[in-house]
Amino acid sequence: MHGKTWVLRLLLLLLQGLGLGSQEALPPPCESQIYCHGQLLHQVQMAKLFQDDKQFVDMPLSVAPEQVLSNFQDLRRAHNSSIPRQLLQDFVNSHFRDRSQELDPWTPADWKDSPQFLKNISDAKLRAWAGELHQLWKKLGKKMKPEVSSHPDWFSLIYSKHPFVVPGGRFLEFYYCYGHIPNGGRVYYLQRSQPPLLTLMMDRYLTHTNDIAFLRENIETLALELNFWAEKRSINVSVGGKSHTLNRYYVPYGGPRPESYSKDAELADTVPEGAREALWAELKAGAESGWDFSSRWLSSGQLSSIRTSKLVPVDLNSFLCQAEGLLGNFYSRLGNEAQAAKYRTLRAQRLAALEAVLWDSEKGAWFDHDLESGRKNSKFYPSNLTPLWAGCFSDPAVVDKALKYLEDTQILIFKHGIPTSLQNSGQQWDFPNAWAPLQDLVIRGLAKSSSPRAQEVAFQLAQNWIRTNFDVYSKTSAMYEKYDVNSGGQPGGGGEYEVQEGFGWTNGVVLMLLDRYGNRLTSGAWLALWESHCLAVALLPHLLLWWW
Predict the structure, then answer these.
(1) Could you say which DSSP state residue 370 is in?
(2) pLDDT class for 88, splitting at 50, 70, 90?
(3) Per-residue pLDDT tens digits for 522-540
(4) Which of 235, 249, 284 is closest to 263 using CA atoms?
(5) Helix (H), strand (E) at residue 259
(6) Rounded distance between C-alpha atoms, residue 194 and residue 204, angstroms
(7) What confidence tens digit (pLDDT) does each residue in 468-510 have?
(8) Is residue 308 domain-resident?
(9) 131 φ, ψ to 5°?
(10) DSSP secondary structure letter of residue 171
(11) Confidence (pTM)
């Protein structure tokens, strides 16, 4: 297997490992009275026995779930439903095991200690760093113990017979597989999806392997994901008297998120009782987007004003546009021209909708559409340029307009990464945080262009991001899920939990950029020398004048 493709194939194989064969686009909501809802979950989480609510719902049981619930009811009755905190802690200690005990370490069979791309990195420091990051895949590689399969109701983890790579930190599960794509590989994530990128994964895998047999075996799974979005997340938008079908993030289930239960419950206390279920559903929709949470979804500065489902997002519809085009190509390669024509038509319709509803020719970018006001959200987010990354535009001139948009919004002045927004809301998907996937979105969107200027801007953005990650790693020996653009030597912050180490997507983007630009990128030493030289040259006339 090609060294660059084992992760992609494993992600695709997870679909088979989860027994995906039915045509159900949306599984039923999780029924677990331990991990998803009920008094046990409520009392443990509201007692805040753990610093992070996710820790509890990731803990495996040490006895059968029926016994856990029966013993808990006895404890409730003995204390008239008001269980002292220490007794509740003792109950958890005696009925649950520490998280991650259901996982074993795993190293891919075809993992190589010194992959070819390392040799193409000119800067010795960056080359050594890349080698250390490559080693992290072994640390993040996991496989499930057989007991997860034999006793599935003892775990929140969804069983897969195939190994996988976790992001790291608090995220000790896979994050892309199932009938629809759940927020993660835990039962409490089943109510909400992930952005639709599975078809793109297949495309990347085929590019390196040309494994048509694997495509034929799994193409209906790819179609199933797009069917889910068409059936469960579509919305009609009327502009200029014409109706367009686009998609949104939307979760039709209330209740607090189990992994953030106490925070969601406390937030709900700030709104009228009749608005609480709707608030919880909007929080889940925000989690479905991956941007949990951001001013992008808020009508005010308060998280309680979240309204994710009331917006038609640029990035979601770009992902779907790309997937429709790829799926059309896949069906054509398999000789099914009827299905190929169907998806090409869908892509053409979405292209027209992106232009009519989301594109702003004057500003030079695409913007989320507000379903209630009928207006675009004109604030900056890197997602505003997703169509460039997805190849979902018809006029090549939009690239130059997008460059001007980045200049007009002064995004290019940030030297440590592209900020997630220009609003400092305290949420983690906002300023001053920068996230690796969003760097990739803008960099590769520009790099795909035939414009030399766009390609050079893409390289400079890549150089900024590499230096930021390298500088932080040099100080901490760790990779993080996000970084602070105000300080190139600091991890990011804000949001519901402490910044996490690991970290899967950060490592992946850095290694991708080092692979692409390895012969040009520098760790900073030469840059500092050059800047000192330039400063000396600039000051020379003044020094001579002073000496004279």
Answers:
(1) E
(2) very high
(3) 998 545 444 434 434 444 4
(4) 284
(5) none
(6) 19
(7) 999 999 999 999 999 999 988 899 999 999 999 999 999 999 9
(8) yes
(9) -65, -40
(10) B
(11) 0.91
